[in-house]
Model the fold of this input.
Amino acid sequence: MSEKWPGGLITKSPPATVGPTDGEGGSAPGVWTLDQAMELNKQGLWPKPPVQGQLYAWGANGSGQLGQNNLESLSNPVQIGALTTWARITEGGANIIAVKTDGTLWGVGDGGYGLLGQNSQVNFSSPVQIGALTTWYQVAGGGSFTLATKTDGTLWAWGRNAKGRLGLGDTASRSSPVQIGALATWSKVTAGREHALAIKTDGTLWAWGSGDSGRLGLNDTADRSSPVQVGALTTWAQVAAGGGGSTFAIKTDGTLWSWGYNYTGNLGLNDSGPYTRRSSPVQIGALTTWKQISAGDDHALAIKTDGTLWTWGNNGSGRLGLGDTANRSSPVQIGALTTWSQAGGALSHSVSLKTDGTLWSWGSNTSGRLGLNDTINRSSPVQIGALTSWVRIPTNMSQSVFSSAIKS
Done:
């Protein structure tokens, strides 16, 4: 028995995917047996159908980032426009940058420092296209700057460039996308408030921007205005930059690592305070079952391969989801559920998805950013509405004072 897949039938060779290494929207031409296809899917090697759907946003709207052609905050999710072709999103402090299924790039909200890529510093309260290209893939929003990869593996940056956070070898801001170097081997990218990191297709990890508190992982606190390799390993699989200066990464062996700022225990290393920062990667515990990591401003969330959700760091407003406001300096499980699929840490709140397509939030609810039709803080996860069709939350949201998500 054989199975079809977009782009052709399946062959007995590794699936050929479109875009970076996550395989989303890829194809595997040729012929496979159903058992072979199922086994590859179990291993995470089978191309995944592309995510696409409607874009929703809620919370603070001071720069028009909710895309409603106004500046009114919202305490419930509201759709931005009528399109159903949104694929990937990221949040800055007050803007959304998004990619559609056709590979076009769009922005809405704060345009300061050229954040929206329009060759200006004008805010927009409805989405505007950034250039005319159809080859954009992943986006990451940081503190007043944005990074993005294209399907050809090139890396681009624009916005504020203090401390060299754009990686362009200088500190001059840019109001439209500029390529970082000439390499076409960039795979995954993340952005914090003042620093950025990226993983190449060879599994190496690179960092640039502010080096304060050792957040670049280069064993010092010096700023870098161009990408510099972190160590010599080729086994990095995922990376997340916290807005407050912490950095986290997962290796291909499922181990979890952290470095940088640690005042409230945000590194998860069982200590805290102004003198406990780390300037090079340190492993968090000894487990090899970490699957996904997300960094808020000064807290973090991670999902294990068994679908459990864990959190640590600053717990102001209950952002850790543990039913209280006490900080944690090592990972603590949120409840007992094994159905979490995506986790996102923002400035002072958290948003997560379950495998059943439900959307949950907790933490600070200023301006209604939890989407629960009020402004009351929550210290434990609460479901947003009753829908079971949510498919994606932002790849980066550590500086965000609002929320967004894609619904199928």
Remarks:
- The longest strand covers residues 54-59.
- Residues 1-10, 17-21 have pLDDT under 50 and may be disordered.
- The CA atoms of residues 56 and 79 lie 4 Å apart.
- The domain at 131-400 is CATH 2.130.10.30 (Methylamine Dehydrogenase; Chain H).
